[in-house]
Amino acid sequence: MKTNKLILEQNDPKVITARNSEEKLFELYGVKAKEHYVKIKGFDLKVRVLEIGDGEPLIVVPGNTGDVFPLASLLSEIKNRRIIAINRPGGGLSDGMDHNRVNIRSFAVDTLNTIIEAFRLPATDVLAHSMGAHWSLLLAMDKPERVRSLTLLGNPGKVMQGNPPFLLRLLSKPPVNRFLIKFIMPKDKNKALHSLSAAGHSKEFLNTLPRELSHCFYYFRLLPHYEISLLSLMENAPSTIDGNQLHGIQQPVQLLLGDHDTFASVEAGENIVAQIPNGAFHIIENAGHLPWLEKPKECGHIIMDFLKNQ
User: Fold this and answer.
1) Local structure of residue 162 (DSSP, 8 states)
2) E strands within the chain?
3) Torsion sign over Cα 4, 96, 290, 270
4) At a CB cut-off of 8 Å and minimum separation 6, what does 174 contact?
5) Mean residue pLDDT across the chain
6) How far apart are CA 182 and CA 160, in angstroms?
7) How far is CA 204 from the centre of its chain?
8) CATH number of 13-308: 3.40.50.1950, 3.40.640.10, 1.20.1260.10, 3.40.50.1820?
9) Domain locations in the chain?
10) Mean pLDDT, range 145-174, rounded to an integer
11) What's the whole-model pTM score?
């Protein structure tokens, strides 16, 4: 199936700058990644996968457009695991794509399943954020033999009528989204993290984060495929996962939700987990939609405790 892909040329100055910024961020957190590219059969595109550490495998599926780099501080807290971190199509130096050209549910499941097959993994623990968590729930429902457990970070996409911030909802509405994105793109590489204030993170806190992280947010958004990949993903997001579907998930699931997450209230998070037969809920206090930013050690401790019991 053709996806109207956008191939990233490795000698493109924008690609080189984004890659260099990621390397500096990973070096800051002591994250050593081996790079792989996996071709997604049937969709004519390549996905960049980062392999980090040794031990039992752990699939990582990021949120937003699919970049792994925002998770750097959390990945440094995950010990003795072989992390297989997927830069979803459109993010993290994977090929870009027009998500409007695919059936998004089958595409999400096929993408994750293809990567699991490429690494010859058995039923595997999965750690996922936001839209990546939505994709991972779909994988657990459609191919349950692939998923041993799920750790979800932040509100997992459109689950039980989750309600993203107003600005984000506008990004799903053409043609206004084509104009809006021009105004919300960061203009200053040292203040690129300020866009996360809409996700429940205070600007005062964001100013304390490493400039290397801010630079990654800035330079990855300048990549030639970013705009079409993001906007088409917002326009063709997966349909809502309701309580009945959640009730059919038999794997152990835990949800870590920041109490300032603007995508879902603590009450909504409790309701989501209550529908899952083997679910656990953790509130991360004074944290936003990316709860590990404020509390990387706390989130890492919760995740490692959970994984030890699988």
Assistant:
1) -
2) 33-40, 45-52, 56-61, 81-87, 124-129, 147-153, 253-258, 279-284
3) positive
4) 231, 235
5) 92
6) 31
7) 24
8) 3.40.50.1820
9) 13-308
10) 79
11) 0.94
